[in-house]
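Our platform keeps sequence and structure together, in a single record for each protein. This encoding replaces a full spatial description with a residue-level series of whole-number codes. We quote a single record here, exactly as it is kept in our systems:
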Amino acid sequence: MNNWLYGKFVAHRGLHTPTISENTILAFENAIAHGYNIELDVQQSKDGKLVVYHDLNLGRLTNCAQNVSDTDYRSLMRKVRYRATGQNIPDFVSALDACRGRAGLMIEIKKCAYETNVIDMEPLILQTLRGYDGEFVVKSFNPFTVLWFLEHAPEFTVGFLSEYDRLEDYLPESRAAVEKILFTGERRADFFDYCVGKIGSTLWNSVHGKMPCFAWVVRSQEQYEQCKKEVSNIIFEDFLPEA
């Protein structure tokens, strides 16, 4: 397990503010300046390029209403801007280059649905990260993505994200993959990354103590104080946590 994951809090989508948009180079620079590690999201453009953005659709935050997956890379880089700040969406390699040797990265792989069994951008992410010499882990809500990385990237630290209360909440075709990731596989997830508001659920209790557990998204010092004895680290937003 990477020791850096425990030593510093993790800034959710970078350390963003009203004047610094989430998942931008400026948000990553701000997190680094404050001494935090960084969580970021990667997904694929229409023409198969890797970009850093959270929502599947661009409309909530930018001047474009299309899905990321329906927008070509050139448009994403040259035309799409965050409405609040005018800042641009970074491509994945640029984000890696900005953080290399300066902060550890929790890289969330965004899929069109939690339980879609489609492997598309994973090989490109794997290829890109095998050429990256900075500190990182990968994680996803999608169990098939997580299982793919566990099988194809034995050298990576791989985590599983969830906000479900019970194993039975997963679709039957996904449940076997989740069981392998958390309980029965020859190689299980290296960590469990769980919704802070669901700590104490049946699924949490079945995993807690069997692997490192992280909590997202912690949004106040009070919330951190309530969960800190239960978790290995937090992914935070909207405040600056005190140890």
